[in-house]
Design brief:
With 92 residues, this protein is α+β, with helices and mostly antiparallel strands. The chain is 17% helix and 23% strand. It is globular and about 40 Å long.
Length: 92
């Protein structure tokens, strides 16, 4: 099982856990497993079409999955996956 780092806004779905384990051979399968164990989390990560939400970044071993195979990015048991909400702001 891969280790998944959960950002503070999503920890209410993981009983406050900062890290959880999830099974799957791709990021998509990993998210499906997260949803099975932590209902409601997938809707915060993915939109209605199943794509990763615009303001959510997912990193597999510190590499942005958008530059890899997106949801089809392979995952191994020893991998670390981080879900990171995008930060926006600044002075216009």
């Amino acid at each position: 099982m891969a280790t998944v780092r959960i950002p503070t806004p999503l920890r209410k779905h993981t009983d406050g856990k900062e890290e959880v384990s999830a099974a799957g051979s791709t990021i998509d399968e990993l998210i499906t497993d997260l949803e099975k164990n932590y209902p409601g989390i997938k809707a915060r990560i993915c939109d209605e079409s199943g794509a990763v939400r615009k303001f959510v970044n997912i990193f597999a071993n510190e590499e942005d999955i958008r530059y890899l195979d997106n949801l089809q990015t392979p995952v191994n048991d020893s991998d670390e996956v981080s879900i990171i909400p995008a930060i926006a702001g600044g002075v216009a």
